[in-house]
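Figure 3 (text version): structure tokens given as input.
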């Protein structure tokens, strides 16, 4: 008996979770060096549902997907069926297809309003069991107030990925900012958006080393001035050693700050050049774009040509 109850409990836990699966058979395929195709099977679709997807990289983790680089069976009003297709321009989004990635298609369930029918109350019947005659009057024809039994759902219109957008600058000119504030210019050449992290501490460290070097240089000059005032070589020797130590610290601190700042400027410049190359290649691949869709229930197609 206990074994039978355990078996029934397992079936009860298994079948509800199995019935909630709505997206199956997700496949990935690189169409070219810029575009990634995601195919999936949508088991059932309900009014108000929204389809979206996440992409995870083994190196970078979760990738930030911008809507202007996505087209296909995504968003709202996606019909259930097999081989639903999503095209993501990964290169235009700032991610070259040179690493192992994984895509997950998800369904965001919406709330569907139900029809409500307004019913008028039934008029009460007169009591016929009384002996007194009943005086009847012609009832006044009254119409119940008109009510709207159904309120259509309101939903936000999805952004058309074919519309132009204002792209931010992430080129090599940010190296000029890194020359003034090391580490700060490198923030703005990161893709797909600026990333702060620990980069501001590079500027703090460089200027801290410069300040420390200047202080040590002053101490070295003071110790060397006392050394020159000494008449005895034996008495002057400790001052010379002290001046030499301070000068050595000054040299290491200032040169170390210059090396770190120069490395940051070079890396920022190279990263900016790489971003410009990726942007030019994405524009070349997207010179002609046709995006079909629906607008006010009518099929539309947006054609864009750039040169």
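Below: residues designed for each position.
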């Amino acid at each position: 008996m206990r074994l039978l109850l355990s078996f029934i409990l397992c079936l009860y836990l298994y079948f509800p979770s199995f019935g909630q699966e709505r997206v199956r058979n997700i496949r990935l395929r690189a169409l070219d060096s810029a575009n990634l195709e995601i195919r999936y099977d949508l088991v059932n679709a309900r009014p108000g549902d929204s389809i979206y997807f996440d992409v995870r990289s083994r190196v970078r983790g979760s990738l930030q997907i911008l809507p202007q680089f996505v087209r296909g069976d995504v968003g709202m009003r996606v019909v259930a069926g097999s081989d639903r297709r999503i095209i993501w321009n990964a290169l235009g989004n700032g991610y070259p297809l040179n690493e192992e990635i994984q895509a997950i298609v998800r369904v965001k369930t919406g709330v569907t309003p139900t029809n409500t029918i307004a019913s008028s109350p039934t008029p009460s019947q007169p009591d016929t069991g009384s002996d007194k005659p009943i005086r009847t009057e012609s009832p006044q024809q009254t119409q119940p107030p008109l009510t709207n039994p159904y309120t259509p759902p309101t939903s936000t219109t999805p952004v058309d990925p074919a519309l132009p957008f204002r792209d931010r600058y992430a080129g090599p000119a940010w190296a000029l900012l890194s020359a003034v504030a090391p580490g700060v210019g490198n923030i703005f050449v990161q893709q797909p958006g600026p990333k702060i992290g620990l980069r501001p501490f590079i500027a703090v460290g460089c200027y801290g080393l410069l300040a420390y070097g200047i202080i040590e240089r002053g101490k070295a000059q003071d110790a060397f001035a006392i050394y020159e005032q000494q008449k005895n070589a034996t008495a002057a020797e400790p001052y010379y050693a002290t001046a030499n130590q301070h000068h050595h610290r000054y040299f290491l601190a200032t040169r170390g700050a210059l090396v770190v700042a120069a490395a940051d400027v070079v890396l920022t410049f190279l990263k900016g050049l790489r971003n410009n190359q990726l942007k030019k290649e994405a524009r070349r691949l997207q010179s002609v774009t046709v995006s079909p869709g629906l607008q006010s229930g009518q099929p539309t197609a947006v054609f864009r040509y750039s040169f």
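Residues 12-19, 112-165 have pLDDT under 50 and may be disordered.
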